[in-house]
Amino acid sequence: MTVSTSSTTGGSKPSNAPAAQDLVTLTIDGIETSVPKGTLVIRAAEQVGVQIPRFCDHPLLAPVGACRQCLVEVAMPDREGNVKPMMGPPGRVKPQASCTLAVSDGMVVSTHLSSPIADKAQQGVMEQLLINHPLDCPVCDKGGECPLQNQAMTNGRGESRFLEIKRTFPKPINISAQVLLDRERCVLCARCTRFSEQIAGDPFIALIERGALQQVGIYEQEPFRSNFSGNTIQICPVGALTSAAYRFRARPFDLVSTPSVAEHDSSASAIRVDHRRGKVMRRLAANDPQVNEEWISDKDRFAFHYAHQSDRLTHPMVRDESTGELRAASWPEAFAVAARGLQAAGHVGVLPGGRLTREDAYAYAKFARVALGTNDIDFRSRPHSDEEAQFLGARVAGRDIGVTFESLETASAVVLLGLEPEEENGTLFLRLRKASRGKTRIFAVAPYTSRGLSKMKATVVRTAPGDEVPAIEALAHDGQLALDGGGVILVGERLATVPGALTAAAVLATQTGARLAWVPRRAGDRGALDAGCLGGLLPSGRAVADPDARVDVGAVWRAEVPSTIGRSGDAILAAAADGRLGGLVIGGVELDDYANPAAARVAVQAARFVVSLELRASTVTELADVVFPVAPVAEKSGSFVSWEGRVRPFPKVITGSNAVADVRVLAGISEELGRPLGFRTPEAAAAELDEFRGWDGVRAADPDVHAQGSGQSTLRDGRSAPSSGTGATTEYRLATWKTMISDGPMQDGDPAYHASGPTPVVLVSEATLTALGLAVGEPVQLSTGAGSVILPLGVADLPDDVVWAPTASGGVNLARDLGALAGSTVSLAPQQSVPETVSSANGARS
Amino acid sequence: MTDMLTPVLSDNWDADRSWTRASYERSGGYSALRTALGMEPGDVVQLVKDSGLRGRGGAGFPTGMKWGFIPQDNPNPKYLVVNADESEPGTCKDIPLMMASPHTLVEGVIISSFAIRANVAFIYVRGEVLHVVRRLQSAVREAYAAGHLGKNIHGSGYDLDVVVHAGAGAYICGEETALLDSLEGRRGQPRLRPPFPAVAGLYASPTVINNVESIASVPAIVKNGATWFSSMGTEKSKGMTLYSLSGHVVRPGQYEAPLGITLRQLLDLAGGVRPGHELKFWTPGGSSTPILTAEHLDVPLDYEGVGEAGSMLGTKALQIFDETTCVVRSVLRWTEFYKHESCGKCTPCREGTWWLVQVLNRLEHGEGTEADLESLLDQCDNILGRSFCALGDGATSPITSSIEYFRDEYLAHLEQQGCPFDPVASTLFATAGASA
C-alpha cells in the first residue's frame, strides 16, 4: 500500500504560505485582472502597470483617504448587472479614492489614463496641494526625489492659477533634536503620524489645528521621542520632514546609492547607503519584506558618522622600542613586527569582538587555529558564561534558518527571555509589535513593564534579575501562555549572565515544543559564532571536542586543528593578566563592554604583546604593540548573519576606499608567520567558509547548569557587596540593559542623534520612591563599593528591591564606573542637586 | 391662514416654564414613553418605518430604516447618539427646540434607544449654547428623578443612561463620524466609511446617529400613530417639520408645518419680506444648500421638491435676503465660514476653501476679470464630490448657485471696481431711504 504523507520537516511548524485566496475580477483602464479579495484599487492598478498618483497612501499603513490625489472613476454592476458609475452630488459622477476602495467583482475602474473626469479630479487636487506649497524645490532636500515634485510634473497642470497669498509658517521647527518640520511644505498626508502610531507605537506627533493651518505638532514642550523617528522623514512624500544630520548637506542627484546591510544589531536590516565623493551622506531603509519591511531604527539610520571621526586610523603603527610610543609603519613592517611579536609571546589569545562580518570572523577563527595553534578565541566582548558557550554550541551555531521575522507573525505566542527588543533590536521590535497587533501574544520575563513591552501588549512576568530561572521554569506550566509548538522563545544575550537560565530556556523549548532562537545585540555575533570564533566551536557548529569535526575542518584547512578546548573571553583576559597567555590579538573590542572593564584593561596591559585591528583609536590601541587600521563596514564587502541565521551579504559601498578588511590584515600576519590563511579577501574567505555548511555530525549537548538559589547578594568577580553605608542608603538589585541610543564608539559623531535619545534615569518602584523621599526627576546617587554616579529618578513597576539603570548612556557606564552588572547589589541615596553633567568622577565622555 | 401650521414639536413652547418636566407632563409628555415600553422594540422600529419619518438633519434618510441597520447579533453594546451640534449658518431649529422643550428630546431619546436596544445614549450638543446645555442637563436630571431614566425604567426591565456632552465648537463635529471621534475624545475629523456607524460607530460599536428634530418627532409618532404622522406632508416627505425663517422677514422664527409647504405660504405667515423691499434670494436649508430666488417661491419645501429645483431641503433654514443684499458679499461671508471650519483632513476642502475666499474677496472688491468667474467655478468643480466629506461640497453650493443666478452682479463688481451695494442698507438698523 502506498501512503502519501505530507510530512513537513518542522513537525508542528506553522505554514507561512498564504491561504488560498478568493480572487476578484475587475477591469482597470480596459485591462481585465484578477486580484485577491480585499485588494485596494490602487494596488490592483499597480499590478496592471497603472501608477495612480498618491501621497497619503502607503502600503504598510492603514488607508486614510486624506489627500484625494488618487481619485479614479469607478463603475459598478447593479443587481441586474448593468454597470453604472458611482455618483455623488446630484447628477455628478463621484470619483473615488482608489487608496481606500477595495476591489469588487465586475468593477470597472477608469484612471486618469482613460477617464477625463479622473484626470481633471487629480489635476485639481494637485493644483490645490501646490497653492500653499512654497515651491522651494531648488533649496529643498527632497528636490529631485520628491513624490510631490514628480507627480506635479506627471499629473499636474503646467501653470498654477493661484495668484493669491500663500499660507506661511516660521520654518523649520524641531519636533525632536533630530527631526525638523517645515510646515509650509507639508501636504498633511498624515503618513508620519500614522507611522508613529501604527508601526512604532510612539504617537508623540499628531495633526493639530484645522483647515489650512492644520499642521503636524508635538505636545507642548514634549519632543517626538522615538527610536524609529527617522522613518517619518523617509516616508514623507515632500520635504516637510528633514533630519538635522542631513538637512542641506546634499542633493539627491549628486548621491550614489548602494544597497547595504545595517551593522548595528543582529537583525541585519536592508539599507540604502547614499554617498558622495567617498563619504556617506545618509542612510535609508531599503524594502526587504522578509526582514525589515520598509523600516529601520534610528540607530541604523543615523549612526554612521563614526567612520569619519578625526581619530580614524589611517596607517599601521608599531610601538617604538626606544620611545615606547606608537609610530607610523609600513604595512610590510607592521606585518613583520606583529608576526615576530606573536611568535615570541608564546601562547596567544584572540578577542575578535562581535562587530565583525562573517568573513572577517572566519579569518579570526582560522587565524587562531592555523596561525597561532590555539582555540583561545571568543567573540563575546560582553558579560558571558561557559553555560552560554555550551548553549550556543547545542542550539545555535551553524544551524539553518529556523524562526524568521515572518514566522513571528504566525506564532501563537512569543516569549522574550533576557531581551528588550525595542532597545536591543529595533527591527525585531517592529515585527513583534506588528505580530502583537495580529494574533500573536507576547510574554516577557523582565524586571518591569517597559514602554517597549507595553507597546507590544506583552504579558510581563515581573522578575528580579537573578530570579529568572524559576520564572522560566514556571512558564512551561503557565496556563495563560499555553506554550506549544506554535510558540517561539526568543533568548537574548543577557540571559548568559544568569546561571541556569539558558539551561532552563532550552528545557522549556524541549518540554513545550516551542521553537527557540537566540537574539544577540550585535550584528557580528551570530556570524562569529557560525564561523567558529569560540573556544569550543569550529565553523558551522562543529565541536572542538569532536575528533571527527577536527578532522573534517583540518582537511579543508590542510592543518591540524588544536584539540584543547579554548578559553572563554574572561578566561583569556585572566590568563593574559597572570602571564599564562603572552599575547593578544584584539579586533573591534571596547574593553568597557566586558563584565569587568578594569580587569580587562589590566590584562591587556599585562600581555607581553598585543596586536590591535581597529577603525579608530581606542583603549586597546593605546596599549597595543602593533595597530592595524581596518575598514568600516561601508568600506569593505562582506556579510552579516542575522539572528534568524540569514546570511546578509553587502558590497563595498565606498569603492574608492583603500581601507582593508580584517581578513586582509590577518592574512598578512599569517603569511609572515609562515602559516598562511590561504585567502586574502572577504570573497575568498566566504567561499571557503561555505564549504563548512550543513554539518550533520555530533553537536554539543544542551547546557546543564542549575541555579544556586534565587538572587545574588554579591557582585560577580569576587568583589564584595558595598557596605550599607550611612543613614539613608539601602541596597537594591540592579537590572540593566543598553538603550538603543546610548554611548558607544559606533554611535559617535551625530549630536542630534544623541540628543534625540532617552534621558538616562534610575528607575525605582513607587514604594522605593516614597522610601527615598524623592520625586520623579530629582537626582539620586547610585553606588557600589567601586564607585557612584548621579542620575535623575524615574518610576516603573519594578519589584521594590530592584532598580533599573541604562548600562552605558549619558557618559555613565555601570560596569566601568560602578563595577555593576545585572543582578549586582547597588545602593541609592538622595542627592542634593543635579550636577551639570550626569557622570561619575572617571566616567565623563568627551 | 394659520391653519397651515401643525404645531407638534412646538406645541408646548408657549406653556409656562415649558422646559420643566412638570410643564411637559401637563401637556401629555412622557405618555408616549409608557406606550413604547409596553411594545416590542422591533415594533417601535416598524412604527417609525411606517410613519415615513426622514432624517431632519439635512440628508433626509429614512429614520426607521437607519435603525433597522443596527445588527442586533453584534455582541458589542449599541449606542444612540443625538446630533445636537447645530452649527450651519442659518440653521436654528434644534437649539430653540432644546431650549423650549428639552424633555421632548429626552423622551424621544428614551423611546429611540429602547427601539434599537441601546442602554447608553449621548446627546452631543454644541458647546457654545451654554444655556441649552444647562436646560438639557437639567431635563436629564429631572428624567432620572422621575424614573424615566436609569435602571429598570418604570418596571420595564429596560435600563438607559443618557450623557449630555458639550462639544468644543467645531462645525465639522456635526458630520456624524467626526462627531463620534470628538465624542471619543479625539480630534473631530470625519472617519473613513465603511465601516458605517451602524456597524462600527462609537467605540467601534453599532451606533445610530440622529438629528435632534428626528428623535424629538418620535414621541408624537408613538402617541398618535404612523398614520397620523404620514397623513401630513407629501408623498415621499411625510410629517411636520420646523421651518426656520430668518433675515429680511417681518416675523422671523420657527414655523412648524407639514412638509411640502411653499416659501410663499411661509412668508405670508411670517408677514412677508420686510416692508418696502422684495425677495432677492434665499436658502432652503442653510448655507450649504444652493440658493434659490423669487422664481422658486412656489417650490414645495419637501425633499423632492427642493431637489428638483436644484437645491436641497437641508435643515429648512430659510434665510431671506432682500434686494439690498450684495450676493457676492454674502457668499464671501459664507465661504469664510467654511474656510474657518474646514477640518483640514482632505486637500480639496482645506486648500480649496483657502483659495475660494481669496478669489471672492478680490471679486467683492472689484479686482479681477470675468475669467476669474470661470476659474472660481472650476475650483468649485474640483472640490464638489472630491472632498472627504460633505463640508467641502457645501462650501461650493453658495458660489456656484450665486453665479448661476447673479452672474451680472459679479460682473457689476468688476465693472464698478467695487461693490455696488451700500452694506448698511441691508442691515436691520438701516435708516429709511438708505440706498439699495
From TrEMBL, chain A:
Function in brief: NDH-1 shuttles electrons from NADH, via FMN and iron-sulfur (Fe-S) centers, to quinones in the respiratory chain. Couples the redox reaction to proton translocation (for every two electrons transferred, four hydrogen ions are translocated across the cytoplasmic membrane), and thus conserves the redox energy in a proton gradient.
Gene3D superfamilies linked to this entry: 3.10.20.740, 3.30.70.20, 3.40.50.740, Dimethylsulfoxide Reductase, domain 2
Domain 4Fe-4S Mo/W bis-MGD-type: 255-311
Listed SMART domains: NADH-G_4Fe-4S_3
Cofactor: how and how many bound: Binds 1 [2Fe-2S] cluster per subunit.
A Gene Ontology cellular-component term: membrane
Subcellular location as annotated: Membrane
Biased composition, class Polar residues, residue ranges: 709-729
Name of the protein in question: NADH-quinone oxidoreductase
Source organism of the structure: uncultured Nocardioidaceae bacterium
The 4Fe-4S His(Cys)3-ligated-type domain, residue ranges: 117-156
Annotated Pfam families: Fer2_4, Fer4_NDSU1, Fer4_Nqo3, Molybdopterin, NADH-G_4Fe-4S_3
Alphabetical list of InterPro entries matching this protein: 2Fe-2S_ferredoxin-like_sf, 2Fe-2S_ferredoxin-type, Asp_de-COase-like_dom_sf, Mopterin_OxRdtase, Mopterin_OxRdtase_4Fe-4S_dom, NADH_UbQ_OxRdtase_75kDa_su_CS, NADH_UbQ_OxRdtase_ferredoxin, NADH_UbQ_OxRdtase_Gsu
Chief location of this protein within or outside the cell: membrane
